[in-house]
Amino acid sequence: MNDERLFKDTIYEQLARIGKAVSSPKRLELIDILSQSSRPVETLASLADLSVANVSQHLKALKSARLVESEKVGVQVFYRLASPSVAAFIRELRLLGEERLAEIDQLVREYRTDTTRFDPVDRDELLRRVRRGEAVVLDVRPEEEYRHAHVAGALSVPLRELEARIKDLPADREIVAYCRGAYCLMAVDAVEKLRARNFRAFRLDLGVTDWQALGFALESGSATP
Amino acid sequence: MNDERLFKDTIYEQLARIGKAVSSPKRLELIDILSQSSRPVETLASLADLSVANVSQHLKALKSARLVESEKVGVQVFYRLASPSVAAFIRELRLLGEERLAEIDQLVREYRTDTTRFDPVDRDELLRRVRRGEAVVLDVRPEEEYRHAHVAGALSVPLRELEARIKDLPADREIVAYCRGAYCLMAVDAVEKLRARNFRAFRLDLGVTDWQALGFALESGSATP
DNA sequence: GCGATTTTCAAGTATTCTATTAATTGCTTA
DNA sequence: TAAGCAATTAATAGAATACTTGAAAATCGC
Q: Quick one: B11 exposed, middle or buried, by C-beta within 10 A (0-12, 13-18, 19+)?
């Protein structure tokens, strides 16, 4: 075997490590969870519906492909994505899947029973309004995820607290809610609740990584009260 | 199991199909080959050092993940990438690998014995000159790959023909050569040959997909003589 | 040292992957 | 319509790997 072949074989073998890491559904789910916020093992286990030992194994696999890192905080071990590029890569994977795999489209169509998809306002128009500052952006994910990273300028109103805090929202402005991304329905819920109270509310099915890819800045840290 | 879990499981299972498709070194290599040009099975087999039957299996796997498509042309079956997004995705995979896997860096460093890496001119500067039209861009890949897609305005001078055609190149202009990408050394060879004849030649270690990602337009079709 | 959390281990089962040879299919073209 | 070529499929075999789980062990803060 000549040098060049050996070189290619080795390079592709290395690249395949990443492919192997993302060839398991559960590991993809873990990466998605981690792209919202860093998490201790136990939480990951419960979010992904796996045993702790099992998650630990999957995390080990992800770690050996250098896609995640861990850090001990107190008694827990927190995992996080090793780099923002990981989230960007998984986003590409998801986009490719949505483009090429009709099954995904089908699934999403069947599962989404929400009303926002009949919105008369399309995504581009909403984004334009957000860019112009005409609309208020609402992050309805749990506060922890908001703290980890959110669209710059967005308000944090976790879905669970929406009812209680709805009176503080500006009734005269358009509201654009987002959550974890296209497969997450928290923002749909939020919009329905808001509309019931006569707010002009819309959903954007984007996660923070998607916002970022569209050129929006992200921030981290708590909301200023 | 509730609806949401079922939905997630199914979605991630679908996305993992793509992960599985790119979890094999040989399939990654095949995709890379196809990102240069569409090819019949037999050629793929010889380029990737595999048996025809084996390539056929791998192609089947890629096809079932909708990453490649095939078309019968005459007596042969030509395979091609199902969409430019596939090449873009594999590029992201490669970039992530280069960022995260030190092994790849190491390998490339060991394998590259060329001199161009000591170039005093860096990539950004070269790109600037190309954008300004100050430099001639040379595509040194086989003509077939040039025909499939090349950087707009680039000259096709396959490495094998370089010696014969060297006299037609402009001696007074800077020459920037490229080939299949970072792991391909044809452009290195070309630059060395050109410099031996006193041309001011440089290498850019970019493949067409990389050029495209940098905002350069691609063209296809034969060179105008 | 206690306790909580996480990792490792061992085991079992199942599955999967890759590559090869041989046979077959399906086209093209003579 | 038959010959010839390219590609696919089948059958096989062995290796390798993967996933999960329950129990034990390690780690580390307190």
A: buried
For B120-165, what is each residue's pLDDT tens digit?
Answer: 678 899 999 999 999 999 999 999 999 999 999 999 999 999 999 9
Q: Which residue has the tokens 């998984």?
A: A90
What six digits make up the tokens of B76?
Answer: 């042969």
The values of phi and psi at residue B70, to 5°, are -130, 160
Smallest CA–CA distance, residue A42 to chain B, in Å, is 18
Could you give the domains of chain B?
A: 3-89 (1.10.10.10), 114-219 (3.40.250.10)
Model pTM score: 0.90
Report CA-CA distances (Å) from A201 to A154, A184, A191, B67.
Answer: 14, 17, 6, 38
Size of interface A-B (CB pairs under 8 A): 146
Structure tokens at B132: 């300004």
Pseudo-torsion of CA A207, A209, A211, A215, nearest 10°? 180
E strand or H helix that includes residue A203: strand A201-203
Considering only the beta carbons, identify the residue of A12, A28, A83 that sits closest to B25. A12
Residue B49 is nearest to which of A5, A22, A88, comparing CB atoms? A5
Active site residues of A: 179
